[in-house]
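pasting for the record
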Amino acid sequence: MFFMFSSARRSTTPTIRIALDKESVRYWGLRVSVEKAIEKLGEGQGQGLVYLEAHDPKGLLLGRTGAWLKSDGDLPVPPADALLRGRTGLESRKVIHAGRSLLEIFAPLQMGGQAVGVIRLGLERGNTDQIIDENRRNMYVFLAFVVMIALLSMWLLYQNQNRHLAGVVEMERQLEKAERLSALGQLAAGVAHEIRNPLNAISMASQRLKREFMPAEEEKVREFQSMTGVIRDEIRRLNGIIEEFLTFSKSRRLELRDCPVQEVLRKIVTLISTEAQARGIQLVSDWGEAPVIVPMDMDKLQQAFLNLIKNAMESIQDSGKITLSLRKTPKGEVSVQVADTGCGMTAEEVDRIFNPEYTTKEKGLGLGLPLAHEIIRGHGGQIRILSKKGEGTTFEVLLPAERPGNGKGGSQA
C-alpha cells in the first residue's frame, strides 16, 4: 500500500491517491464493517456493556467502543488460534478494570461462515453476578418445589397403598368369615342329625322317669322334680341351639307375596304377649287400620321381627316397655320400628351387633340379630339402629313397597 499526492495545473485542489493491495483492501473493508457494527452494539453500554473491540487474526484492531483494555497491558488478548480454528467456541475470564469487577468474554467473529477475527467483550460482573444469584435462587426454589412434590407424591402413594392393603385385608377377612359360615352350615346339619335324635330319646326318658318313678318321700319328691326340671330345661336349651344353627344355615330362598305388615306384627304380639306379661314388659302397638302391603316371605319376615322383639325383651332387666310402630316414609318405604326401654348399647356394640361372631348372650349362639339382618336384606330393606347406653334402643326396619327389580319370582336373602 502507498499514498501519492499530486495537484493539477489548472486547479488548486490537491488530490490524494491511495493504492491498496488485495490484503489491505480486505482489512479496511472488514474494519469499516466491524466499526459500523460495533457502533450499533455500543449502544448497549448502559445495559452492563463496558467495552467491546474486535481484532483480525494478526491481532490488528478492527474497531472498539467503550473504556477498553490495552492489548499489550497486564491483561493481553489470549491466543486467537483456538478460537479461529473452531477448537473452542467461547473463552471467558474475570478481570479487574478501573476498580470494577468485569467478566471478559472472547468469541470468534464470523462472516460468511468463516472466522475473520476475535471479539473481546467486557461486561459488568455486578449485573451478571446478580443474574447468576437470581438464577441460583430460582434453581433452589425449583429444587425445593420438586422435592416437596416428590415427598407429597410418595405420601399419597403410601396412603393409597395402605388403603389398598386395608381393602385386601378386609376382603381376606370377609372371605375367611364366609368360609367359617359355610363350615358352620355344614356343622349345623351334622349336629342336627347326630344330636337331635339322642335328645329326643333323653327327653322321652326323662318324662317317663318323672311319670313312673316318682319317689314316695316328700323331700325326695321335691329333689326329684328339681333334677328332672334341670334335665328338661337343658334339653330345651340344646334344642334351641340346634334350631339357631339350622335356621341360620338353611337356604335363603325367599318366596315373595304381597301381604299386610300388620298381620305379621299381630301374630308376633300374640306369640310373645304371655311371655312379655310374665316378665313385666308392656307391649304397645302403634299402627293404623289401613293395611300396609309389602312383598314379603311371611314366615321369614315374621322370624326376623320376632328376633328383633326377643332381643328387645332380653335387654329389659326388670320391667319396661316395647313399642311396635308402623308408618310410611316420604320416600315410599315402609318403616317398622321396635323401640325398647332396655339397657341400650354403646357405639361399638351397635357396629358389631350384626356380626355372627359377636354376642353378649350367656346362653345360646346369638345368631338372632344376624339372621334378622340377612332376612331384611333379602327383602331389599335395611335396618337402622338408634341406641343410648342406659336409655334403650330403637331398631328401624325399612322395607320397599315394591319387589326388588319389580320381579315376580323369588329372591335371595
